[in-house]
Amino acid sequence: MEPREKFCSYCGALIPYMDESCPSCGKAQPPMPGMRIAVERPSKKIWLAVLLSLLITGLGQVYIGQWRKGIAFFVGTFLMGFVLFDIVDYGLIMLFGTIMAIISAYDAYMTLKSGAK
Ligand SMILES: [Zn+2]
What we know:
Shape: rod-shaped
Bound molecules: zinc ion
Number of helices: 4
Helix content: 40-55%
Strand order of the largest sheet: 1-2
Radius of gyration: 26 Å
Order of helices and strands: EEHHHH
Number of strands: 2
Largest sheet: 2 strands, antiparallel
């Protein structure tokens, strides 16, 4: 149960709990516990995660704290490139690497966008 009223820290008047200033004396009230002063900004920057993933596949995942996924992206891409190296030409490997980087970047983007870790 949330309290509906509180006492002014300055004049002691009973005032509505969520009021930011006292209607009686007009002084600003100290922030109440549980009250959000500012909307929390995401601590991880989406553009940075995307950029990192584009530079090195999986790095964006590592940046946002998804170590295993990031390493899986990186190692998977590396191994696939290694295997493909004997079979297909260089251009296709680069294309594959680019696609993996974009998928990695997109994954990092969606992860941060949804707020999930
Ligand atoms: Zn007051």
